[in-house]
């Protein structure tokens, strides 16, 4: 599959007249709890020739290349990426920390060296907190629930705990977070669900797991209180991002 993805990246570069600076796996495969039939969420950042950025007419800043049962491929223009990074967009930190990297250029190495300077703790916590609350409210409150959604709530809760604890972007792998922050009283249930998730084409619905719901509800409340007390930090400086952007055309 990696060979297929690299071939797709070459097709994109030729068809769109772009240079892909960085490309990774996102989603459940990067998080470490993909099902056997999970698709590949391929995400990339690209740069176009300089003339493209000097045009007066509006231009698209995303490439949506493929979406089917196997591949989900799309990318962001470097201007879009840098503008979002300036405001501490959590998605970029996840991409930059993905354990599955398909392509990384020397130019992206320079981005990697400065990216964490733009991380804002409060923004990161509210991003993951929103993800946890949305999945909890939408999927886990009825008598019968979609069991895989527990991972889409627990991972962001652990990510919030990491940010509160270490004040840095959290790691992407679920195991790195759970090894530190998973309580002993939910460990057996989580490990049981993880075994099913990793070995079943599509983890089924089942009875709500009250011990997990109690843990989720309690931690969401605690994280909300802790986040509300964090100081509001302003966005990072533009100067480093401007310098990096201009460097792509030298």
Beta-strand percentage range: 15-25%
Q: What's the story with the biggest beta sheet?
A: 5 strands, mixed
Q: What string, H for helix and E for strand, traces the elements in order?
A: HEHEEEHHEHHEHHHEHH
| Rg value | 20 Å
- The structural class is alpha+beta
Question: So what's the overall shape?
Answer: globular
Provide a count of the helices: 11
Cα distance spanning the termini: 34 Å
Order of strands across the biggest sheet?
Answer: 3-4-2-1-5
Number-wise, the strands total: 7
Low-confidence stretches: none
Q: What is the average per-residue confidence, as pLDDT, rounded to a whole number?
A: 96
Helix content: 40-55%
Structural description of this entry:
The protein is an alpha+beta fold and 250 residues long. The protein has helices spanning 2-16, 28-31, 78-86, 90-96, 106-114, 121-139, 151-166, 174-181, 184-199, 210-228, 239-247, and strands at residues 19-26, 40-47, 62-67, 71-77, 101-104, 144-146, 205-207. It has a 5-stranded mixed β-sheet with strand order 3-4-2-1-5, with helices on both faces. The radius of gyration is 20 Å and the shape is globular.
């Amino acid at each position: 599959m990696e060979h297929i993805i690299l071939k797709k990246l070459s097709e994109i570069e030729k068809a769109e007249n772009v240079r892909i600076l960085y490309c990774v796996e996102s989603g459940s495969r990067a998080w470490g709890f993909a099902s056997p039939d999970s698709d590949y969420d391929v995400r990339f950042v690209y740069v176009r020739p300089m003339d493209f950025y000097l045009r007066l007419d509006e231009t698209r800043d995303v490439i949506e290349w493929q979406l089917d049962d196997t591949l989900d491929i799309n990318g962001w223009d470097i201007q879009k990426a840098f503008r979002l990074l300036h405001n501490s967009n959590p998605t970029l930190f996840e991409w930059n920390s993905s354990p599955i990297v398909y392509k990384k250029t020397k130019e992206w190495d320079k981005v990697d060296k400065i990216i964490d300077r733009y991380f804002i703790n409060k923004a990161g916590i509210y991003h993951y907190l929103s993800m946890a609350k949305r999945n909890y409210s939408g999927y886990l409150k009825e008598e019968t629930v979609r069991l895989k959604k527990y991972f889409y709530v627990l991972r962001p809760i652990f990510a919030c705990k990491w940010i509160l604890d270490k004040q840095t972007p959290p790691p992407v792998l679920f195991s790195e977070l759970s090894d530190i922050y998973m309580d002993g009283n939910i460990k057996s249930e989580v490990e049981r669900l993880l075994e099913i998730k990793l070995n079943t084409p599509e983890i089924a619905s089942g009875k709500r797991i009250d011990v997990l719901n109690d843990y989720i509800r309690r931690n969401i409340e605690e994280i909300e209180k802790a986040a509300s007390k964090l100081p509001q930090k302003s966005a990072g400086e533009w100067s480093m991002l401007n310098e990096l952007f201009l460097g792509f055309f030298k």
